[in-house]
Fold this protein.
Amino acid sequence: MSLDPAGELADPAAVAAALDAAGYLPDAGLATAAFLALRMRRPLFLEGDPGVGKTALAQALATITGSPLIRLQCYEGIDASQALYDWDFPRQILHLRAAGDSATDRAALEQSLYDRRFLVSRPILQALETSPSTLLVDEIDRADDEFEAFLLETLAESSVTVPELGTITASTPPLVVITSNRTREVHDALKRRCLYHWVAHPDFAREVAIVRRRVPQVTEQLARDVAAAVARLRAAGLVKPPGIAETIDWTQALHALGVSQLSPDTAEPTLGAVLKYHEDIARVQRDLDVMLGG
């Protein structure tokens, strides 16, 4: 079974249109990368600053391919058992107790503990057993080198081996999207396995379009004012430059206050919607007119 059985996603333009219909506005480069990942059945490695829409793209790809999104959130110390599978120890104990002294064949009883019903599927195994599926490996840069190596091997084979049960192979390999905020460099071996795309902040016109799509009730003027102000904030060398999510949050906050046009007076009390560090807020407050282009 294909992720695009009807062949509707025949070229990058068709992918762009489908993503647009799903609520995601890609640029030409990102639409091409997504098309190639689908056509070539290769994992898509998305790198970029937090908040540029990497995770949202995976969600949109799941929508346009009609496949469930299965998410593996990476973190420091994650290991194979937390990503792949584990055994349901409490249920195994209950099974032993239920068998009690009535079980005459102890070897058979022990073997029954590793029945498929006691296997807990974690995200990667879920994705391999679900056909079709979209697997999001989110923030791989937060995991360690050993986990990267494990992930590389799993993606190469599209299968996992459970010693007690055998090898489980995907009938249709999942569409894999891997994201990184680049808090550290990911090994070249993993990147070579994938198609790579750097997801940049949107240009002014696309950011206005995204805001208008996500917050349709706001005025065109406010959407343009906020997008222009956020672009200046991103160029100001802040600790945490705002992403698209913060642009949308700021627009919603201003709209909730009845604001139709951005000004220093309306911007200052709402900076907490777009900036998340005290140092950034203090810096912007000192140069508010410059930051807003006033």
Observations:
- The longest strand covers residues 175-180.
- The mean pLDDT is 90.
- The chain has three domains: 12-77+129-198, 85-116, 204-291.
